[in-house]
Amino acid sequence: MMPSMGKMLIVIGIVLVVMGLVFTYGPKIPWLGKLPGDISVKKDNFSFYFPITTSIIISVILTILFSIFRK
Question: What is the number of other CB atoms lying within 10 angstroms of the CB of residue 57?
């Protein structure tokens, strides 16, 4: 039981570090959030932004990383 809890804490720590790096350096990456396929609608008093392509790319990267660390 303890080794699995230790692994879970390590994974949570890595996820928190990655999230911290994304929040710190994410705005400095010029193409992040501005890929073709990201939906952006701007009207007079309304703006809507849905980064679908960016979300898919991040999901694929995280899936690959988690499959590597699972083994």
Answer: 14
